[in-house]
Amino acid sequence: MTRALLACIYVPDPDPMTQNPPKLAATAESKKSSRNQRLWVFFKTYRTWFLFGAFFLLATNAMNLAIPAYIGEAVETLRDAAAQGDSLAAGFDAVRDQLVNIGLIIVALAIGGGIARTLSRILIFNAGRHIEFDLRNEIYDKLASLGSNFFGGMSTGDITSRSANDVSFVRVFFAISFLHIINTSIAYTIAMSRMIEINWKLTLVCLIPYPLILWVLRYLVHAVFQQTQAVQAQMSELSTKVQENLGGVSVIKCYAIQDREIDDYAVMNESFFEKNMRLAVLRGGMQTLMMLVAGVGTLAVLIVGTTMVVDGSMPLGDFVEFNSYVVALAFPTAAMGWVFSVWNRGLAAFERITEILDTTPRIQEPSEDERRELPALVDNVDRGEVSLRNVSFAYPDDPETQVLHDINMEIPAGSSVAIVGRTGSGKSTLIKLIARLYDPTRGEILIDGEPLTKLALRDTRSEIGFVPQEPFLFSMTIGQNVRFGLDSLEYDDTLNRPTPTRPLLKDDTRAAISQPERIAQAVEVAGLSPDMSGFADGLDTLVGERGVTLSGGQKQRVTIARALLMDPRILILDDALSSVDTKTEGVILDHLDSIMKNRTSIILTHRFNALSRVDKIFVLDEGRIVEAGSQPELLAARGVFYEMCERQRLEESLKS
Ligand SMILES: Nc1ncnc2c1ncn2[C@@H]1O[C@H](COP(=O)(O)OP(=O)(O)OP(=O)(O)O)[C@@H](O)[C@H]1O
Fold it and tell me: Which domain of life is it from (predicted)?
């Protein structure tokens, strides 16, 4: 019977031939199989906890279900005593002692059963907690390895909902499902075998409602599964809405659209509420159905059983014992209703989590055999040659639109180059490829002669200092934000260990300096020193969420200092000085001049007054390099670059 009940938990996927096109059906199949494999791995990892938990469940049921037999014995003893009437007087003490003994055994069994029950729950719930813990770490590791195209395809709210709510549902799935499926199976096995032994006909009577209920349950379980998925999806939408609105609160206020946003949220919330209510009704229906099984069974036993007792075909003690089993099975039966919904919710949640875990990072580490080392960095040796060979690129989410076409670039080690071009010409995309945030769809990129794809990602990231267009600061202190790229040992400034890298300032000739000194130098080179007096706690000043307490220019300079501290072979600035005034920009570029002399720098800028400092300028137009040369050469050529400079000069003169 329990097997039949369990069969109902399984919700068949829609028929692939009729419901989905073949491609989607294959994806759904593979998702399901990956989900099941992962579930099995978790179960296997914590099987010892589950097995001991099951053992204590067996002990609990063995003790608890032994009690009805003693109750039956007590009833029979009392019935015999009552039948003897007056003649019992002499033997009254013996009957009382017998009943007290039975009572003591029942108490002992109840205490033993209680202890075993507690232990079973500790073990099984702990296994669930461990699975939750592992799953959270696994999701976080996976998220850390995924690239920007994944985050472009899934909203932050959705990811948060999956890694917070769904993980909890999976814990409950493991703990509650295992606990009650095993408990109900054991309870039914023990109780049913004794009930059949007492009276098989009466046992059949109490099974009367099951076929009908299993039939109804099959549809109910499917409905609960679908409703659960709808609730979880709506929860993700709500989280996304809250997250977006909190992030864009200043935009909402500027456009005075609070009321519209509040209304939108209220509509979404109402839909969430309604979906939850529908789910609650379905779940309630399921539990009621299971209670009905227990209730109808008890009623049938009372009607048929009492007739049997009255006509003498069943002893009263057996009837009481039988009835006690029916009552004892009521809770395990009703609990299965709960298990059905927890099971479905857990499977739906785990499927959503599997979608994250099964995502393959587009940027792959090279295999051990393929991996190549970059030559060690040596002082006074030019380093950081960058070559692009026939590089073309289209974003993975829009593969039809070619953003870069056949780019060839040679950037000698130690040189400085600028990439300029109209907005949308592909400048940022090009440097994202050099920083290996994406791989080219065609062609290859080499650093010091080694293909980027053959270098360990960690090496690539530490050799390339990338300062993105939009600075991102963590809600930590300024100092912690600057040191963010260092590994955990270096990060711990209490160690005050000397770093084997050269100083960043040209007037510091020491071969090795301590980390705090180096941080101070990075701050200085990035042009942040004059602002430090304005911060209450200097480097220890907290910057608020995303650096909200700093100006745009200050944020940019913190991210430049962060990149410099890594002592990168190649420094890439993606319009990283756009928010600082031209005077500060000049100071920063002066500092950079001195530290860039033996490393490569690639500057992407819209401000042409910085271009006189670079060795070579590449002009991009519609994803193609249309001009390349030094500033005087390009101006003399009177081509695209000349036109852009002229337009900018005109705009500036109009402004002034
Ligand atoms: N993640 C993305 N997915 C799809 N297309 C993208 C993505 N990012 C950028 N693009 C497209 O690629 C093209 C080049 O964009 P890119 O940001 O490289 O230009 P840009 O020259 O740096 O522009 P700007 O000077 O305005 O920063 C644009 O048409 C843009 O719409």
Answer: Bacteria
Number of the ligand 1 atom closest to the C-alpha atom of 425: 21
Tell me: the pLDDT tens digits for 182-223? 999 999 999 999 999 999 989 988 887 777 777 777 778 778
Residues 6+ apart with CB under 8 A from 26: 16
In this structure, which residue's CA is closest to atom 2 in ligand 1? 395
Distance CA 391, CA 442 (A): 6
Query: Which residue in 613, 158, 255, 637 sits closest to 418, CA to CA?
Result: 613
295 and 427 belong to one structural domain: no
> In testing the pocket of ligand 1, which one of 419, 425, 607 has its CB within 8 Å of the most ligand atoms?
425
Going by C-alpha positions, the residue among 533, 522, 508 that lies closest to residue 557 is 522
Q: What is the atom index within ligand 1 of the atom nearest the CA of 152?
A: 1
pLDDT by residue (tens digit) across 495-547?
A: 444 455 555 665 666 566 677 777 888 888 887 877 777 788 887 888 777 76
Three-state secondary structure call for residue 398: coil
This complex has an ipTM of 0.97
Please tell me the distance from the alpha carbon of residue 246 to that of residue 259, in angstroms, as a whole number: 15
* Residue 367 Cβ contacting ligand 1 at under 6 Å: no
Token digits of residue 357 = 């875990």
Q: Is 426 in the pocket of ligand 1 (CB under 6 A)?
A: yes
If asked whether residues 340 and 458 sit together in one domain, one would say no
